[in-house]
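Hi U.,

Before I forget, here's the chain from the pilot set. I'm dumping it here mostly so it's searchable later in email.
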Amino acid sequence: MVHQAQHDTWALPKSPLRPGEHPLLVALRAVTEGTGYTAVAGRPLGHTGYEAGLADKGVCYWAMQATSSTWIPSTKADTVHWLPLKAALHRLDDHHDYRPLVAFAIDPVPTRAQLLVRHASAGDRASWPYADHQRPLDEYGRKQAAVLVEILTAYGIGRVVCAAVRRCRETVELYAQYAEVALESVFLFSAEGHAAAPEAAVQRLVTIVADPRPSVVCSQREAIPDLLAGLCAALGVAVPDEPQLDKGGYCVLHLAAGSEAGRVVGIEVGQPLP
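Structure:
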């Protein structure tokens, strides 16, 4: 919690959305600017909406785990306090921050993220004269891949897997290079590979998710709904409402870490570019 000197109030750190900025990255920036802490993002904690003067405002919240801090008092926050949940609820002056704290209190376990990503924009199949599996990302797709680097960094991804298709590889290889992790290519996660052996593809995904490292798997439109449904069935949770992801879209399963490893704590669907 931060003390906002200009208002003399206690609240959770937050910041306005900049043009073209992804909401998750805003949340991480707000935490760093307000507290000095860098963090790894966890499960979503919902959002609030309210009127502020003549404007309507909304705030999205995520659980996070602090990784390091070099906090310096500022005009935004002159004091930072770590508090137990009950004490934090009593200390809050901004009542809009109550709901995410209550949502976190329901299941306050550490989590790790597992992402299933649809490849970024790659132009039109009809206009590509060569083998379809060699079709590259277009200009917009490369921008999506660049934003995805920040998102995967936010979730602390330590394992990168893609379908054996060029546009899938190009969607995540920039992050693999940045994070200095190996890029694994799996034929089963391509549309062709999945169609030939759907059960084997789902089992391969389940095996990857069982790895304690937070991971990302990049696949294609034709394979993703079945892969996600099979994974959710294996983990004993319902499939989210939007399993057919847009190009560059992703689904995050937040799994409990530690003694409860493998239990799904939350699911979210997002897009790399607003």
